[in-house]
Amino acid sequence: MTARRTLRPAPERPALEALVAAAKQREMTPAEREAQQRSWVTGELMLGGITREKAAALYDGAQRRLRRLHAVRLIAAGVLATAVLAWVIATLVDIAGRLT
To answer: How far is Cα 47 from Cα 38, in angstroms, rounded to an integer?
Structure first.
């Protein structure tokens, strides 16, 4: 029977703990977030045997499609808001017409 190995507590590392605490408080810039996303997606795709260049092209294409979708969503939201506003105005005019 082999003896069980127990883990000892990790040594104190105040400098490392201070760096980790500072990193938790820091906000990423949009450019840093984009670079992090690109790096993660590229790494994940490369695990499937895709080259770095192909992974970057796929990421760029997906980003373009997402931007287009977001623009369409904003336009649709604007059209819906305009339609709702027109309905509210028509309803108020109708109510005002009944009061006179």
So the answer is: 14
* Global pTM value: 0.48
Cα–Cα distance, 57 to 60 (Å, whole number): 5
CA atoms of 37 and 48, how far apart (whole Å): 17
Higher pLDDT, 16 or 85: 16
CA separation for the pair 62, 56 (Å, rounded) = 10
